[in-house]
Amino acid sequence: MASEPLSPADRSSLAAEQGPVHMSVGGVLVFEGAAGLGHAALIERLDQRLHLIPRYRQRIEAPALGLANPVWVDDPGFDLGWHVRRASLAPPGDPDQLAELVGQEFSRRLDRSRPLWELTVVDGLRDGGVALVPKMHHALVDGVGAIDVGTVLLDPGPEPLVIEAPDQPWAAQPYERREHLARLVRTPMVQAQRLLGDSVQRALSPDPRRAADDLRRATDLLAELARARPQAPMTPLNRPIGPNRRYATAELSLEAIKRAAKPRGATVNDALLAIVAGALDRYLQAAGQVPDHPAVALVPVSVRQPGEQGGNHISTVLVDLPLGVSDPIERLEAVNATMRALKDSAAVRAGALLVGATGWAPPLVSSMLARTLSGVRAFNLVVSNVPGPQQPFYLNGARLLEAYPVVPLNPSNQGLSVGMLSYDGAVRFGLLADRDLDPPLAAAAQALTEAIEELVA
Question: What pTM was computed for the model?
Answer without folding.
Answer: 0.85
